[in-house]
Each structure stands twice: as structure tokens, then as C-alpha cells.
Amino acid sequence: MGQPVREYLLTLCVTVAVTYLLTGPVRKFAIAVGAMPEIRARDVHREPTPRLGGIAMFGGLCAGLLVADHLQNLNGVFELSNEPRALLSGAALIWLVGVLDDKFEIDALIKLGAQMIAAGVMVIQGLTILWIPVPGIGTVALTQWQGNLLTVALVVITINAVNFVDGLDGLAAGTVCIAACAFFLYAYRIWFGYGIEAAAPATLFAAILMGMCLGFLPHNMHPARIFMGDSGSMLIGLVLAASAISITGQVDPDTMALFAGGERNATHAMLPVFIPLLLPLTIIAIPMADLVLAIIRRTWNGQSPFAADRGHLHHRLLELGHSHSRAVLIMYFWSGLIAFGAVAYSVHSASMWIVLAIAGLSALGLVLLLLPRFTPRTPRWAERLVPPRYRHVERAAEAALLDATGAEPAPVRPVAVGVSGVNGATAVGPRSRFPDRRKAESSR
Asked: Which of 33, 180, 258, 266 sits in a 20 to 30 Å window from 236, CA-based?
């Protein structure tokens, strides 16, 4: 088992390195070709930021697959399954459409059609859902049309969910990286814990997806030097969906020999098999919730579901008073809690400690949401290690200025906020932690 772990680690490191090293030249290329969003009336950013970060991420995907194909243990994934080639074909198509959209702003309906075509390309090459486990019934085989439609729907929903959450610097890449890490642990356990080789492609896809996100994050963390754009968000959404489809619809639960010992025991033993049916949804629970709320909100207001706005979950966090970095970290926290909580429950479903731990961490997450209600006090010896807004000297100077002039002080440094929706529109601009300025900006 040690050898496969080392090969996965090597594949991960190569993907990280290639993505990281390509992002710098890609940024210069994006600036040269003018792949930067223009300033519009509803935007608040002052300077355009280059996109096309998906080019570097696609390079990392190709490098990861190439390295894995030449490794002793992972090479079997390419020999025994056509799924890696199916993934690469669909990823290349959706990536190309994303690149064109980052440069020329393609219509949302055209992108939706391209997403369906990319999913269809993967289905034609065998990456499709063959059966699903149903509680109380067991494994239900799907017809060809049922499996194809379910596969296309899952791919399209996942792509757009990831695209919708790509609104703050580092948010989409970090959230998907957390989801991929949780999915890797689950798929690796299915492969080596139960000896099911059909889980090998999903394990490889999750490892490569982690590398793509980790390699891009240093360039995309706040303040971002480059955005992934639709070429990146749709790409990682498709890879995430491919991992879920591979292990959900290709791994036969009957091979786990969990049906012995009576109906009641079988139902309890089948819980780890029901988890993959829910895991693709739990790992994108936050983006999925954002997607559903956005569609309801825009439809209720008489707008197109694909129209960009400032009503996403991360925008709500900013309106509550959270800083850019804190809002991203809170989204990371909830994504990790849901994804790893689902994986832990699938491993030890009978353990009450897991349920209590999830409940306790959920309570901690609610406390984090209330952080704007108070200002943390930093010890004086640690003031040089924290942002200026948490230092006693800066807070005292701001309070004195407010008392003397009645006007708020200028922020120490602007906080860039990236806003992007399904159409790839991006906006960055200064945000203040003072509520009056935030109201003034929102009324413009």
C-alpha cells in the first residue's frame, strides 16, 4: 500500500508544480491579449485583473495524467479503464469554451450547451452512472438513457455550482481543494479497504484536482494577481463531477459483500455505500446552496438565472462586516466540516463521538459568523504579527479621529473583492469595514 501512496504523492506534487509555474507566464499572456474584465457601472473595482488562470490549471491536469500513466501502480488505471481519456476529452472541450469566454464573453446559454456537450463526450467514452444504491432496495441498475441523463445533469449542476461560488479571491480553488481531499480519502478507502479497482480512477482524479487547486492558490489568494475565470472554474467543476460519477456509478456495491446477516444488518452495513450517493452533494453543499438561492432570488426578481448580482453567500458575509480573508476562511470551514464530516460518518457511522464532534464544530462555525459583533484584542507582543486593524495603536488612532472630526478614517489598506457569476464577470475593489462606507458603496 505504501507504493501507491508514494505514486499518488508524486502525481500530486507534479500537478502542483506545473500549475504553479505556468500561472505566472499565463498572467503575462492574459494581460498581453487583453483577457481582463472591463470596468462597468455596477462594478466597484478600480483596476482590471487578468483571467485565463484555467490555462495553467489545464496544464497541471495534463501533467498529472501524463505522470500517472508512467507509474507502475497507477498505469493500470489507463490500461483497464477508459475513464482518464474520457475525462481529458471532456475537460479539453470545457476548458476551450472557458478560454473563449474569458476573452470574448460568450452567452450563458451557449456555455450551458457546451457543458452538456462536454458531459456527453465523457458519457460516450464510458464515464457514466451505471447503477445507484437505493436504501431499503439495494442496487438498482439504470437503463442507458437514465444513466446518461443523470450523468449529464450531475456534471452541469456541479460545474455551475463551482462557477457560482467563484466570487472571492481563493474561494473556489480552496473550496474545491477541500472537497477533493475529502473525496480522495473516501475513494482511497474504497479501493484499498475493499479491494475494488473500479475506485482507482476516482482516486486519481481527486489527487490531480487537489494539485490543480493547490498550485493555483498562491497566485489567487487575496489580493489576487490573477483570476481562474470560467476556463478554470468550469474545468475544476467538471473534474470534481467526473470523480463523483466514477465512484458513484461505476463501483458495484454488491462487490463489497455487505448483504450478509439479515435485512436490518444489511441496511446498516450498506450505509458506507449510500454515502457516495450523497457525497458528491455534500462536498459541494455550500456552492450548491449558493446556486439554488441565486436561481430563486433572480427568478423572483424577474431576472435571468444567469444574471450576475451581489447576493451570493460570500457577499452576505462581507455585508455582515467580515473582511475578505475572514469570509473566505469561514467558507473554507463550512465546506471542510460538511465534506470531512460525511466521510468520517461513512467510516464510523455507529460512533456517537462523530455526531457530537460535527455538532460542536457547527456551533463553532455559528460563533465565527458573529465575529463582526466584536473586535478581537491582540496582545501587544503579537501586534506585529497581525493585520493593522487588530493593533491597539491603530484602533486608538481611529477612535481619536472619529471623536475629533466625526469623520471616519481612511482604511489602512484596501481589500479587493472579486465578484464573478456564471458569465465570468469579475469585479474587485476596495471594501471598508465601516458600515457607513459599505452602505454608500452598495447604493452606487
From this structure: 33
